[in-house]
User: Fold Energy transducer TonB from Pontivivens ytuae.
Amino acid sequence: MADAPSPAATAPAQPERQAAGTGTRGLAGTQAAATASLTEGQRADLIQQWAGEINATLARRSLRTRGSGTVVIDVTLLRSGALDGARIQQSSGNPTVDQAALAMVQRGDFPAAPRRLEVARHRFRLPIDVR
Assistant:
């Protein structure tokens, strides 16, 4: 039996890009102002905060499987915290560990993005250590 995973805090993955010309035009006044007022550093800090909350959520989940290793999973979350997609980005070398980690992520129930972070969705690369 493996212990609960201990996902490492990682630098956020590259954000999904908006199509050219979409900008903040369609956002209501205060929402557009909040987005425009964030510096790149503030935005990165908010994404890192969200990633920390996601890692904490995963660390609380139990993962029971035979074997050990580190599997890297690409997870795309909507602003609400709803799971938009998950796939194995890098295998641990053990298919049982890989599938158990992927199933754990697919259970969903992730925290929403910080209120000031105006994104539709974001992709995270999450290494999950199974011991």
In short: DSSP finds three helices and three strands in the chain.
